[in-house]
Amino acid sequence: MTGLITQRLAEIRQQLPESVRLIAISKQVSVDAIREAYAAGVRDFGESRIQEAELKQSQLQLPDITWHLIGHLQSNKARKAVEKFQWIHSLDSLNLAQRLDEIAAQISCQPEVCLQVKMLPDPNKYGWTVPELLADLLALDKFEHIKIKGLMTIPPQGLDTSEVLALFHRTVELADQIRQENCLNIQMQQLSMGMSEDYQLAVQAGTTMIRLGRIIFGERTV
Ligand SMILES: *Cc1c(COP(=O)(O)O)cnc(C)c1O
């Protein structure tokens, strides 16, 4: 019998271009549900809290999973984050970048990160505004241990479809603009945008990574 998660994944994948990497967001999801997604072929999982991820990682013991941190990271947990996650989508300040880079140097690893940018003002979210990000670019380009791979964005609540699509298009343009700065270390190959409600718009705009939770695992209870 095919489970619900397996069915949902098949439906989603059918509409996705090859170039889009699907990250299953498993926050507040049981390890059994994660196992079903894994059995269906998912190898990228995202969590927003380090402790929760750590517990699941030890229960699952599946070494070929790539773990993605998608939630705000406090500086004092940066070391744990680098140890437990291969990707950090929620790099949201120069200070945190500095900290991650120091740790990556110390433990000789190269975490892949996205710069979280707010394309519209949003008091409820972390991240750089566009002018702030452009102002910090030169400083960010000096970090040699973290691998800055692209941009992550979350649209503010309450936008209509055309506004969300426009926001995603502007994010693509911002990545193009940054690419033209000819940075040494910063790369702009990846765009992490698109969640359950809006991933089709993100795909339309040319995203490379989508972060899907509820549409795979069902509504979260909390
Ligand atoms: C929870 C979360 C997601 C997944 O959201 P869904 O609406 O369940 O798809 C994606 N990205 C971030 C940053 C999140 O916090």
From TrEMBL:
Entry keyword annotation includes DNA-binding: no
Keyword line: Pyridoxal phosphate
Gene3D superfamilies: Alanine racemase
Names of required cofactors: pyridoxal 5'-phosphate
Gene Ontology molecular function terms on file: pyridoxal phosphate binding
Keyword Cytoplasm carried by entry: no
Domain of life: Bacteria
One Pfam short name: Ala_racemase_N
Alanine racemase N-terminal domain span: 5-220
PTM annotation (N6-(pyridoxal phosphate)lysine): residues: 27
InterPro entries documented for this protein: Ala_racemase_N (IPR001608), PLP-binding_barrel (IPR029066), PyrdxlP_homeostasis (IPR011078)
Purpose: Pyridoxal 5'-phosphate (PLP)-binding protein, which is involved in PLP homeostasis.
Family membership noted in the UniProt record: Belongs to the pyridoxal phosphate-binding protein YggS/PROSC family.
PANTHER family named in the record: PROLINE SYNTHETASE CO-TRANSCRIBED BACTERIAL HOMOLOG PROTEIN (PTHR10146), PYRIDOXAL PHOSPHATE HOMEOSTASIS PROTEIN (PTHR10146:SF14)
Name of the protein described by the UniProt record: Pyridoxal phosphate homeostasis protein
